[in-house]
Design goal:
The chain has helices spanning 10-32, 38-60, 106-111; strands spanning 72-77, 82-89, 100-102, 119-124, 127-137. It has 138 residues and is an alpha+beta fold. A five-stranded mixed β-sheet has the order 3-2-1-5-4. Strand 1 and strand 2 form a beta hairpin. The longest helix is centred in the first third of the chain and has 23 residues, at 10-32. 15% of the residues are buried.
């Protein structure tokens, strides 16, 4: 069953999240990618795109929750038909055994800003996986 409704305070939480990401963006870039290289540039672009898209989604008042950093996301593996829950966290908080995955991981990047009901294709070191997003909680 899909969870397609916003919980109370969802927009307030999203606006707070957007403000926090904007204010911490430069510190995050320096922390995770201190060297001036292609990885740093890619991360800067990811953060800029994330901030822009999140802002656009908030302005559109879309009626479906979407995945942000800090979200807990329940997905169904379409090919193997099992469900798993991930929480998208900062890289230094990652603990896959506890279901906490970095938003910079292949799965994390694929889930960011996606909505409940969407299907995402994730290219992992072990091959491609298709997930259907069943539920999103902030």
């Amino acid at each position: 069953m899909l969870n397609l409704a916003f919980s109370d305070g969802y927009y307030d939480k999203l606006r707070q999240h957007l403000d926090a990401i904007k204010s911490k963006k430069d510190d995050m870039i320096d922390r995770y990618f201190p060297e001036l290289n292609a990885e740093r540039y890619d991360f800067m672009q990811l953060m800029d795109d994330y901030i822009k898209q999140l802002g656009e989604l908030l302005q559109q008042n879309c009626d479906t929750p979407f995945v942000i950093i800090g979200s807990t996301v329940k997905v169904r593996d379409i090919d193997d038909d099992y469900t798993i829950t991930f929480t998208l966290v900062c890289p230094h908080e990652s603990n896959p055994v506890k279901g906490c995955i970095s938003y910079l991981s292949p799965i994390g990047k694929s889930l960011l800003l996606r909505k409940a009901g969407e299907i995402v294709n994730v290219v992992t070191p072990n091959g491609e996986v298709r997930y259907e997003i069943l539920e999103i909680k902030i």
